[in-house]
Automatic annotation (TrEMBL), chain A:
Region of interest: Disordered: 130-187, 210-243, 268-326, 369-396
GO annotation terms (biological process): negative regulation of transcription by RNA polymerase II
Matching InterPro entries: Prefoldin (IPR009053), Prefoldin_subunit_alpha (IPR004127), RNA_pol_II_subunit5-mediator (IPR052255)
Biased composition (Basic residues): 225-243, 384-396
Upper lineage: Eukaryota, Metazoa, Chordata, Craniata, Vertebrata
Localization (cell): Nucleus
UniProt protein name: URI1 prefoldin like chaperone
Family: Belongs to the RNA polymerase II subunit 5-mediating protein family.
A GO MF term: transcription corepressor activity
GO cellular component: nucleus
Keywords: Nucleus
Automatic annotation (TrEMBL), chain B:
Family: Belongs to the prefoldin subunit beta family.
Lineage top rank: taxon: Eukaryota
Name of the protein in question: Prefoldin subunit 6
One function term, GO molecular function aspect: unfolded protein binding
Organism this protein belongs to: Amphilophus citrinellus (Midas cichlid)
Biological process annotations from GO: chaperone-mediated protein complex assembly; protein folding
Quaternary context: Heterohexamer of two PFD-alpha type and four PFD-beta type subunits. Component of the PAQosome complex which is responsible for the biogenesis of several protein complexes and which consists of R2TP complex members RUVBL1, RUVBL2, RPAP3 and PIH1D1, URI complex members PFDN2, PFDN6, PDRG1, UXT and URI1 as well as ASDURF, POLR2E and DNAAF10/WDR92.
Cited PANTHER family: PREFOLDIN SUBUNIT 6
CC annotations in GO: cytoplasm; prefoldin complex
Annotated keywords: Chaperone, Coiled coil
SUPFAM superfamilies xrefs: Prefoldin (SSF46579)
UniProt xrefs under Gene3D superfamilies: 1.10.287.370
Residue ranges that the Swiss-Prot or TrEMBL entry lists as coiled coil: 2-36, 80-114
Function, in words: Binds specifically to cytosolic chaperonin (c-CPN) and transfers target proteins to it. Binds to nascent polypeptide chain and promotes folding in an environment in which there are many competing pathways for nonnative proteins.
């Protein structure tokens, strides 16, 4: 019932506007121009009104005829829920030609008006009240009857100026919609890697075939964090620097650098760690072959966890670019485990852990300690084993 | 015995739910048509208010296309007829569905009774 009252109120306001509109030949107004600007202009042909009859039918008529239609509508109003909106605007071409103060491209202006108009139309599909408000405001927009503003009578100027604010959000909504759609379209593109060299590395996305996006730089950041922990801030500035300079896969390799004797020695394989070799060697004396087996299983389970925990791993496996390969330890791990088991089951596990920190935090720390060349391996060995087993027990 | 009846009951309940869904679908479609009907009626009346001096436009996508007033009236009349026909079709459809769902309901209730009897027997046996 309140809805109906609102509707009838709007129609009454519309009626008043139609009465007063032809009083002047033309009005000086500020025309909304996009969502953020106005332009001085004139409202002309004030007697010509284009009226929406419903079901996408329009008719151009005089203000008086429009009034007749409005009256008829008010009578019929009780019959329908979705009120047909009276949308009217003066003839566009004439108004456009009379913008005295700026040289505006006529076609683009025309487009603008059409866009306004039809964006409002879309809203009117959603809700009658909304539609009515907005379309009648669009009609203001187009310099016609105003059903929403409380200002009635001859003072039209305030009416015009208050209008644009209501239309502005509409445009913005549409724009946001468009932006959003653009974003989605972007996600459907071919796999691409964007490296951002900006302050916000999180903008970097890798779009894969299945529309899963991998926040490349986020992972890199995680790695960097873990690495920093390992190396006690050795490469901090260095890594940061590197992070921003990544242009080739080689750059990534540069990041995985062991610091031995104060000199950075590049690794041949990122998935292996030199220091680990040493530590593991010392380990072999203690542990049996069975232990190695177990560790391999652990590593496998890690990779499994990785696959389940991190959604990015899915994205990685499909990525074709070489950089992604480096980030692809989970799938690599399987291939590795066959050869590595004799020497080094651990190193292959390390990258997993660095990448999926939430999985097993205790072990992660331990591994990080191990990889740090500064830490003396033999001291680590006994602790490592126990923690490893503990983690395994946890997993069970 | 009771289990078999229970299964039957479940199956029947599912079927009934399906029927209800379809019924509601056709109901909503019909409502849509009703609104369109009223709208087109209003358009027709308003077109009658006009004379040939006013140009009539039709909105096709983003374009307003000029139309002849008589053509527009004819088009609207045709559309009205079409909508009326659709409404009648949906009416008959709804009636049929109602009948079917009634039948289903009866079947369901009888099954339920059987089930209760069977359960009563089972309890008695135990």
């Amino acid at each position: 019932d309140s809805h109906r009252k609102k509707v009838s109120g709007d129609y009454e306001a519309l009626d008043d506007r139609l009465k007063t509109l032809p009083d002047q030949l033309s009005y000086d107004i500020m025309v909304p121009f996009g969502p953020l600007a106005f332009m001085p202009g004139k409202l002309v042909h004030t007697n010509e009104v284009t009226v929406l009859l419903g079901d996408n039918w329009f008719t151009k008529c005089s203000a008086k005829q429009a009034q007749k239609i409005v009256d008829h509508r008010m009578k019929c109003e009780s019959l329908f829920d979705l009120t047909s909106v009276v949308c009217s605007f003066a003839s566009l071409t004439s108004t456009i030609l009379l913008f005295p103060k700026k040289d505006v491209n006529i076609s683009c202006l025309f487009q603008n008006f059409i866009l306004f108009f039809f964006s409002l139309f879309r809203l009117s599909d959603n809700g009658d009240m909304n539609g009515e408000d907005t379309s009648s405001s669009s009609s203001e927009e187009e310099k016609e009857a105003d059903a929403t503003t409380p200002v009635n009578g001859l003072s039209l100027k305030p009416g015009w100026s208050s209008l644009p604010s209501s239309t502005a959000p509409l445009r913005q909504d549409r724009k946001e919609e468009e932006d959003f759609e653009e974003e989605e379209e972007e996600a459907n593109c071919l796999p691409t890697i964007y490296f951002s060299h900006t302050v916000e590395p999180k903008k970097v996305r890798i779009n894969t075939g299945k529309n899963t996006t991998l926040k490349f730089s986020e992972r890199k950041e995680q790695k960097e964090h873990s690495k920093r922990k390992k190396k006690n801030g050795h490469n901090n500035g260095h890594a940061h620097h590197e992070l921003h300079k990544i242009t080739t896969p080689a750059d990534i390799y540069r990041l995985f650098v062991d610091v031995k004797n104060g000199e950075p020695i590049p690794r041949k394989s990122i998935l292996k760690s030199r220091s680990r070799e040493n530590s593991v060697c010392s380990d072999t004396s203690e542990s049996s072959a069975a232990d190695f087996e177990e560790r391999r299983m652990m590593g496998r389970s890690f990779s499994h966890d990785e696959a389940t925990h991190s959604d990015t791993s899915d994205g990685i496996t499909e990525e074709d670019s070489p950089t992604a390969v480096l980030l692809q330890p989970p799938s690599r791990f399987e291939a590795f485990s066959g050869t590595v088991i004799e020497k080094d089951p651990m190193p292959s596990a390390v990258p997993h852990l660095t990448i999926s920190p939430p999985a097993l935090p205790t072990i992660l720390e331990r591994k990080q300690e191990e990889v740090a060349p500064d830490v003396a391996p033999p001291q680590q060995a006994p602790k490592r084993v126990s923690k490893f087993k503990a983690a395994r027990l946890q997993q069970k | 015995m009771a289990e078999a009846i229970q299964k039957k009951l479940k199956a029947e309940v599912e079927k009934y739910a399906q029927m209800q869904k379809e019924v509601s679908k056709s109901m909503s479609a019909r409502q849509k048509l009703e609104t369109q009907l009223t709208e087109n009626n209003i358009v027709k009346e308003e077109l009658d208010l006009l004379d040939s001096s006013n140009t009539v436009y039709k909105l096709i996508g983003p374009v307003l296309v000029k139309q002849d007033l008589d053509e527009a009236k004819a088009t609207v009349a045709k559309r009205l007829e079409y909508i009326n026909g659709e409404i009648q079709r949906y009416e008959t459809l709804l009636k049929d569905m109602e009948k079917k769902s009634e039948q289903h309901r009866e079947v369901l209730s009888s099954l339920q009774q059987e089930f209760q009897k069977a359960q009563g027997l089972a309890v008695g046996k135990v």
